[in-house]
Specification:
Strand content: 15-25%
Distance between the termini: 53 Å
Number of helices: 13
CATH architecture of the largest domain: Up-down Bundle
Largest sheet: 7 strands, mixed
Bound molecules: glycine
Radius of gyration: 20 Å
């Protein structure tokens, strides 16, 4: 078993262990004395893993109820959240009880937001079952729901009490969802760790599974350092957004349908690198992403994507922060006006 201790305002452990879901009750009993919880999951993940989790909770005397919502980003809204609050209420959850997020990023974000706000805050445990959720969204305490005006526009910072990553759960992911997570893994290599990038670049979508535990561990450890330095996203944490400015624009341009988040980030990293990094860095990045069947560009012209960037949360008044990796393994935060950013991205002087 590998444990990573995240020393944020409320420290917690990330347990990384194949088969950990079978022992979830044991790990959870070590961080809370409560014997009541609600499992929050979607219909697909629930069918696969809720029984295993439930058995382990029962074994440790933890009584639970399960709230299931339809899989997908379309569920991450105020209506599902409202049903979730009603469920927590009707099960009689008290301030000392907790919720468990069992699933991908949508589940973790929503369950975390419910936990951060229900009764002014109760504990929650993350059990991420996608690669993207394991290496990114389950760690660091960002929670949110979407509004019609955009993604993740309402949220709170709420650190989990525990994160349990069981890489066996990655075996049931479709290749597309697995490679979605690989985009974020490549990002970690680009922003902080050349040798992680090389490890990923020397494998492909099939062979990476042989070293996936190491990849998960190293990505989470990079995230740990960044989040410990800047828990509330006022500075260094922005480097985690490498590729996200254009990536979000691509996702929005395609109405969040044709592109997964990871696919948007992959293409987004390439757009930025082609402008701001050397040809060598840009070529290495593109070839690595190709091995994971991730896009390196988009059909839309950059001028069609740029208007979405000004709506991004990374925009502050008329300025925009964006991340550049001039070399693999090192990220810089750049700030300029939106107008200048557009000029630079369009290749104008
Ligand atoms: N997913 C980016 C962050 O946690 O800051």
């Amino acid at each position: 078993m590998q444990n990573i201790r995240v020393n944020t305002s409320k420290p917690y452990d990330v347990v990384i262990q194949r088969g950990a879901l079978n022992d979830a009750g044991k790990y959870i009993s070590e961080v809370t004395s409560s014997k009541r919880c609600v499992i929050i999951t979607d219909d697909i993940v629930g069918r696969l893993y809720a029984d295993t989790l439930g058995r382990s909770l029962t074994e440790y005397g933890i009584e639970y109820s399960t709230f299931v919502f339809p899989n997908g980003e379309a569920s991450k809204n105020i209506h599902t959240l409202s049903d979730m609050y009603d469920h927590l209420c009707s099960f009689g959850l008290t301030r000392t009880d907790f919720v468990i997020a069992l699933g991908g990023g949508v589940t973790g974000d929503m369950a975390g937001f419910a936990a951060g706000t229900f009764l002014r805050g109760i504990q929650y445990i993350q059990i991420p079952t996608t690669l993207l959720a394991q290496i990114d969204s389950s760690v660091g305490g960002k929670t949110a729901i979407d509004l019609t005006g955009g993604k993740n526009l309402v949220g709170v910072f709420k650190q989990p009490a525990l994160v349990i990553c069981d890489s066996d759960t990655l075996d049931t992911l479709t290749p597309e969802i697995f490679s979605d997570g690989m985009a974020e893994a490549v990002k970690y290599g680009m922003i902080r760790d050349n040798s992680l990038f090389e490890l990923i670049a020397s494998h492909d979508l099939d062979s990476i599974k042989e070293v996936i535990d190491e990849v998960v561990y190293r990505c989470i450890d990079i995230k740990r350092v960044v989040v410990e330095n800047d828990e509330f996203d006022n500075g260094e944490r922005m480097i985690l957004n490498f590729g996200h400015t254009i990536g979000h624009a691509i996702e929005a341009h395609h109405n969040y349908t044709n592109y997964t988040h990871g696919q948007g980030v992959a293409a987004g990293m390439c757009y930025i690198s082609r402008r701001f990094a050397s040809e060598d860095v840009s070529n290495k990045l593109e070839s690595c992403l190709n091995s994971y069947k991730l896009p390196i560009t988009d059909d839309a012209d950059i001028s069609e994507l740029l208007p979405y960037c000004s709506k991004d949360k990374k925009c502050q008044s008329e300025n925009i922060n964006f991340i550049v990796c001039e070399e693999i393994g090192s990220a810089q935060i750049r700030k300029c006006t939106m107008e200048e950013f557009c000029r630079l991205m369009e290749g104008k002087q």
